[in-house]
Amino acid sequence: MTRIDPGGTVQRRVVDAAQQSDRRLWEDLAARAVGAVVPYRAAPGIAVYHVSVDDHVVIAAEQDLAGPLLDLVTAVMALGGAG
Asked: Is the pTM higher than 0.70?
């Protein structure tokens, strides 16, 4: 996952679900997150997220994060390692 702040700062976080003891939880969350269709509506002054799960990519502005996508972003940003 990549978070691009309005000022251009880039943060990358990675979680390798296969290496996690709670692998199934990560895989289920990731599957639900990429299954949720989120329109990309960038706006000035808003962070943008680039979420990649296997071959699926979701690009979302911070104000559009909701449901499983918000849950995944929150978990990866908090628990993921630098990517």
From this structure: yes
